[in-house]
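Quick bug: DNA-directed RNA polymerase specialized sigma24 family protein output formatted oddly.
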Amino acid sequence: MMTRRPEHPTHATGAHRAQRGAPRAVRTDQETLVQRPPVPYESHVDGLFTYCLSVLCEHDAAIAALGEVLALAERRADRSPAGADLRRSWLYALARWACLRRLMAQGAGAAAPADTGVPRARREELALLAWPEAAGTTAEQREALELAVRHGLSPQEVAAVLRLEPDAARALLSSAACEVERTRTALAVVESGHCPVVSRFSGDAQILLGAALRRELVRHVDDCADCRRTAERATAGEPWPGTPASSAALPVAEAPVAAVHAAMLDALAAYRQRGSAAPPTPRFDRRGFPQDPKDRVARRGRLRSRALTTTVVATVVAAPVLALWAAYRGAPETGESQEPAAVSAEETGGTAQYPFDGRGPARKTFDSRALTAPRAADVSVTVVGPDGRPVPAPPSGSATPSAGASAAPAPGGPPPAPAPGPGRLTIEAQPSGTTTLITLRASGGEPVVWSMTTDAPWLRLSRTGGVLRPGQSLTVVVTVDHASEPVGRWSARVAVAPGGGVVTIEGQGRAPEPSPSPPRPSPPPPDPTPQPPGPTPAS
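Here's what came back:
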């Protein structure tokens, strides 16, 4: 174990000192032995590195965060919790704090790093973290599942890391396991290939299962009798949903030990600095566990409601899933199904603008002039990404392409070169009169096979599928059949595959006809005037 003195020793700790005058080869062997984390933490290094990688989704950032975790643990070794289980949960709590601090330090304007130019080995390392069955879980459920399933923490340890009560942690894990089983059952129905509706939903074998598409698949399996029978046969031998045995083991990435050790030494050197040059350290509770940053709640609310981008990017190939705080960084939250306030672009007769103050979703504002069209559908559009979160509509100044495929280059210049890598599909939607224009744009290095379906029989799609080459775009016109639309306010979804994007369209149908009022009963005839009694005869 490394020394607990503030200054770093000059001799090699954790191994025998090399004798003076020893051959260089022997000294190299001794130096190689010390390029490892402290012995009490060595068995947890791979798990902690995987944890940091799943949160930060960047190899070097995960190494730096893990180095900071080991440096904090080494500095507080004499005040660490006793017991192996508590020490392991304490290390993961430190990793959670370090990753959260880095995500918050990036600021609200930080964007997710692009995957172009990433070495193949690191892309495979990130792909190791993918977990399609967890697409229907919330951020809190996914975080608890990662700790319990991938890292093997007990419910008590999960509660300690997440600062929850043990009963609350067990309930969270149980509900998350049920969602995983529902998704696993839906995927088993997709693999069977017996239902044509499910085949239209999936569209492509290389689809990225997002929260929106997962909801459609699970809903269909619940409603379709054939799919329910297929699901019952597929899960006949499975454990009871919600039990720990129903979750298979997940892989863990191997940590680069030498790089982690170097990062730990750098972090120790940084912590020895004084004043503002020293990095921040967490505040610890009475048990020795790090407390969350004091402004976490406020920052989380702002960053979760922040408009991410004007488009939804749905990757065709499988991509790594951000296991924990993807909502803090503004990256697509694959696997989360949070539902913030809807962001809609409402049809108006005036000039629209898109003000955005950086603290909430960008909304389209409009004037109060009445619509002049006698049968305006009052259509509003919401684009929901693969993570289940609405995104803002495109700026009003952007040109709206006409229906049909187009791959027009910029005026006076060569056509843009498609970006290398897998095919990507970008979805934009905005109302135009009584119709809705859904624009699909392909990018990347491969063609994209797309399909579009709707659950509303009163919506008409100008196109339902096709192939887009990199750089091409296509606009699908969605019209409303007023003869078959429902009465009153209605809402419908248009699902786009691959990627699980969903466009929610809301409109106002014809007003319900007033029911005839029953005839008022006529008042009863007045009672006849009684006759006065006659004179009484005298006796």
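Actually, after a second look the formatting is fine. The chain has two domains: 24-304, 321-397+420-508. Closing.
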